[in-house]
Write a structure and sequence with these properties.
The protein has about 190 residues and is α+β, with helices and mostly antiparallel strands. It has two domains: about 90 residues, Roll (Ubiquitin-like (UB roll)), CATH 3.10.20.480; about 90 residues, Arc Repressor Mutant, subunit A. The protein contains eight helices and eight strands, in the order βββαβαβαααβαααββ. Helix 4 crosses helix 5. The radius of gyration is 22 Å and the shape is elongated.
């Protein structure tokens, strides 16, 4: 995968050709920060554990403590989160074959742990090309064949808008980017 990185002061912009990044953290040396200095580095996860240790050593020098001052992730990362645990989480996310907008939608609704469980266990369903819940309702009715036994001249009277509203009230549907809806299946 070709990668281009542009650093502008403390802001990192990553442009991937053919891929996406899911978890980047800015690791800051706590002792230097307390002395009034900002010493840190952006780290793109996942990476080999030895490489991560080397990156931490570069940031920490002879000091021992770090904290995360910024991040790019689909979920909240607290400042004292263990970076090695984040690295394992990033490895799991990398193995999940799902589009970034769907992952972001799941974490918009779920906590980090709940979102990972939903993604790993396949506890969700994606509806494509949907502007609203009426479109979701149309897909569900068509895919499940709810109107197959209803005469064609009566099918046009089915109220997809009302059914979509009921689906939304009784289920968990999250609007994602690119005309997608994600249903969290309980």
């Amino acid at each position: 995968m070709n990668k281009y990185i542009v650093k502008v002061s403390k802001v990192k912009i990553i442009i991937y050709k053919g891929g996406i990044t899911m978890l980047d953290v800015f690791i800051t040396n706590l002792a230097e920060y307390n002395r009034g200095n900002l010493v840190g580095e952006w780290v793109e996860l996942p990476m080999d554990e030895d490489e991560l240790s080397e990156e931490l050593s570069k940031v920490l020098g002879n000091d021992e403590e770090y904290f995360i001052t910024d991040y790019e992730a689909p979920f909240e990362v607290k400042e004292y989160t263990n970076v090695f645990e984040l690295n394992e989480l990033a490895e799991e996310l990398e193995e999940i074959n799902e589009e970034k907008d769907v992952i972001n939608a799941i974490f918009e609704y779920c906590s980090k742990d709940e979102g990972m469980e939903v993604l790993i266990n396949g506890g969700y369903r994606v509806y494509h090309d949907c502007r609203d819940m009426e479109d979701v309702a149309m897909q569900i009715v068509e895919e499940l064949g709810y109107l197959n036994e209803v005469p064609e001249n009566l099918q046009m009277y089915f109220d997809y808008e009302a059914y979509g509203r009921d689906l939304d009230i009784n289920g968990t549907f999250i609007e994602a980017e690119n005309n997608k809806f994600v249903e969290i299946i309980n």
